[in-house]
Amino acid sequence: MSVLKKLRESRNLSYSGLADQIGVSSEEVKRWEEDASSISKDSLSSLAYYLGSSSEELQDMIEGNEPYLTTHPYYILGKGEADGWWGHFGLCLNGKKDSKWFPITLGQANKISNVLDNISSRDEWLIVETLNNRILVFRPTRVSRMWVLDDYADPPEEDWSPPWDGYSGNPSEFYKGLEEYCWLEGDWEDGGEGERSVSNTVIKAVETFTDVHDLDFEKIAELVLETQIYNVEGRTFSHIVEGSRLSELMFSADIGESVMMLNLSNEKFDFYIPSDNVALIDMPKRCVDKYIREERYFEEDENAN
């Protein structure tokens, strides 16, 4: 069974049901399932947006380069697994009154609980992937409190502020559209066809969202491009960090390697922060994913040659 057929049936959609959502004919959807190479770039973007993924992830899955596909907010397909939006993770930093809230899947909720129940070192890091384009890397012993909150539970009224983009976030393709909107400063037409990689469906969703929430380019950059580093006192530093630096940090934290110094340098300047002073690193997930994907393609090309 093709990946696209699995995704369509997982939503209990007929050919015409999915076609109506994407704005194409039923025959075209059927042709995609039989031959995924016939999908145009624009249709792939719309399809990824509706199914809750990104066009890059969906393309990789179709080509067999990924064992599973994360879809928002309901499913992860592959290896017989299913995971989806479960609730929220709340994290309060020292010196702060209110928690920062992030939508998470059941798998991430179980991971958080398991790590916190079995934490063995004050220097241990926890990595949490959220459904609103963030990856959290933090030391649990250096924050004030944490919540793992089922969506059916009553939120703590004195400490409940939903994420800026809603209760369960948005599809990855939406954040990709926000990035392009930011880089092109909303001028999709002058960006040129080579620059624009999201569909008209995504563009319309982004423009509507930015208008409703009165987001300017500076605010969008903060939300989708910048990494926020919070120190043990709750103070914040925002910086656009290269994907390679973020990926190295995640890998070191994941294998339990002692991270003495955070290297946030780029080609213009060297910049370091002692890890002992860091409570939380809140990084944009797409930035990390893009770097990992580019590295994989580079290694595949190297092996092929």
Automatic annotation (TrEMBL):
This is Helix-turn-helix transcriptional regulator. It holds the Pfam family HTH_3. Residues 4-58 form the HTH cro/C1-type domain. It comes from the Bacteria. It comes from Marinomonas sargassi. PROSITE patterns: HTH_CROC1.
